Amino acid sequence: MSTIDAIGGVATAASPHGKRSGIRGFVRWLAFCMERRRTRLALLELTDDQLADIGISRCDAYREGLRPFYD
Question: Disordered: where is this region (predicted)?
Answer without folding.
Answer: 1-20
